[in-house]
Design goal:
The chain is α/β, with parallel strands linked by helices. It has 2 domains: 261 residues, Vaccinia Virus protein VP39 (Rossmann fold); 76 residues, no CATH class. It contains 10 helices and 17 strands. Strands 1, 2, 3, 4, 5, 6, 7, 8 and 9 form a 9-stranded mixed β-sheet that branches. Strands 10, 11, 12, 13, 14, 15, 16 and 17 form an 8-stranded mixed β-sheet that branches. Strand 5, helix 6 and strand 6 form a beta-alpha-beta unit. Helix 2 crosses helix 3 and helix 3 packs parallel to helix 4. The protein is globular. 40% of the residues are buried. The structure holds S-adenosylmethionine. S-adenosylmethionine binds next to helix 3 and helix 4.
Length: 351
């Protein structure tokens, strides 16, 4: 499984920002209480805005939600890089940027833009972001985005990380952009809303780069009333995380999220139906194992009989695979007889 952590230089800057808020990482009990309080706030107010005016909320976000969302955004950046999603993009608007979670992750993934606008309705997270980014970054921070401040739409990337839930709808300039990157919580409700947003974007002339490997209808939206698409990565926690988490009811061994990368320019080459995304966990059923797979508008499964194989495929949700030309298709199943030759796991280096 892909593993992602929180880099040491950000750990150090985050610890200093927490000290300034009088929340030392050396006193994890106080931080845990703040995290629990903010988590409870989000649960009670799913569409509510982060209460940035509160010192405890700033500390909770920095200590907990920032590292977790940074890892999620880093995973999305990696998928974007291997799909060629960022090619030719010159400006980025991180809307609802908070403490800069997505901007920091994209920069860390090696992505550079001529113009980077970080927009949040509240001053407090922008100030936190400035401290985390450090001097000389060339970033611009704003509490609003007037039309005159928008960079050219032809090379513009619009980023929304964990913000769509706080917005009634995406701003109109987003759909006029060349590229959109959306990251959402992995709940069924948020995930299905993202699939509907994918459908709307495709109707507007966008093309899906990831997680989708095709431009057809989404099988989870159109062929199921309850499925939703989400990814999972392994979380490499920073030092001190165990102490913070020991005071919390929720534990993060792995991180889940839903995301979509879409551009007006079509992908360089159509990769469907040979290239496919693993979108489920393996399920054993009466001598057979099935795992949801996406490569087109049909809701399909990779399927194999474990007793007939010397080695079973070991695929994680979110993996990208290439199917061999001779693979057997039976109804909604892609049947594997020899996974070693019929299936190739694509790592970023092989893209
Ligand atoms: C849950 S936080 C996400 C922060 C960051 N993008 C991340 O991934 O961690 C949502 C952010 O969106 C901001 N926000 C909500 N509505 C907004 C709006 N209409 N304009 C600008 N920012 C907004 C909030 O202030 C908050 O900082």
């Amino acid at each position: 499984m892909r593993r992602i952590g929180y880099p040491p230089e950000l750990q150090a800057k985050t610890a200093r920002a927490l000290e300034r808020l009088e929340y030392a990482t050396a006193r994890p009990g106080e931080l845990s209480a703040a995290v629990k309080r903010l988590s409870d706030f989000y649960i009670a107010n799913p569409a509510g805005s982060t209460p940035w005016g509160e010192r405890w909320a700033q500390a909770a976000y920095l200590a907990y939600f920032l590292p977790l969302n940074f890892a999620r955004a880093s995973a999305v950046a990696r998928e974007g890089l291997r799909a060629g999603f960022f090619s030719g993009l010159e400006s980025m608007i991180d809307f609802g940027s908070g403490p800069g979670t997505a901007q920091l992750a994209l920069a860390r993934a090696g992505l550079a833009f001529r113009t980077v606008l970080c927009v949040d309705q509240r001053e407090e997270p922008l100030t936190l972001h400035q401290a985390l980014a450090g001097p000389g970054t060339g970033l611009t921070w704003r509490t609003s985005l007037p039309t005159a401040a928008l960079p050219s739409r032809e090379t513009r990337l619009a980023v929304f990380s964990y913000v769509a839930t706080e917005l009634d709808r995406l701003p109109s300039w987003a759909a006029e952009s060349e590229a959109i990157l959306l990251i959402e919580p992995s709940t069924r409700e948020d995930g299905r809303r993202l699939l509907e947003r994918r459908r709307a974007l495709l109707e507007m002339g966008f093309h899906a780069y990831a997680p989708c490997t095709h431009q057809g209808a989404c099988p989870l939206l159109e062929k199921s009333g309850k499925d939703w698409c989400h990814d999972r990565i392994a979380w490499d926690p920073p030092p001190g995380w165990g102490a913070l988490e020991s005071g919390l009811p929720m534990k993060n061994r792995t991180l889940t999220f839903s995301y979509l990368l879409a551009r007006r320019t079509p992908p360089a080459a159509s990769t469907a139906p040979r290239r496919a995304r693993v979108i489920g966990d393996p399920r054993a059923e009466k001598g057979k194992t099935r795992q949801l797979l996406c490569r087109g508008p049909e809701r399909e499964f990779l399927a194999w009989f474990p007793r007939r194989l010397s080695a079973e495929p070991a695929l994680d949700r979110g993996d990208l695979v290439e199917l061999g030309a001779g693979v057997e298709i039976r109804a909604n199943e892609v049947r594997l007889k020899d996974p070693g030759t019929e299936l190739q796991l694509l790592t970023p280096e092989e893209m």
